[in-house]
Amino acid sequence: MKNTFLIIVSLFLIASAAHAQVSVIVNKSVPENGIPASKLANIYSLEITKWGNGSRIVVFDYSSANNQQNSFYSYISKSSLDLKKEWMKKQLTGEAKAPETLNSDDEVLAKVASTPGAIGYVKSSLVNSSVKGVAEIK
Question: pLDDT band at 13, cuts 50/70/90?
Answer without folding.
Answer: very low
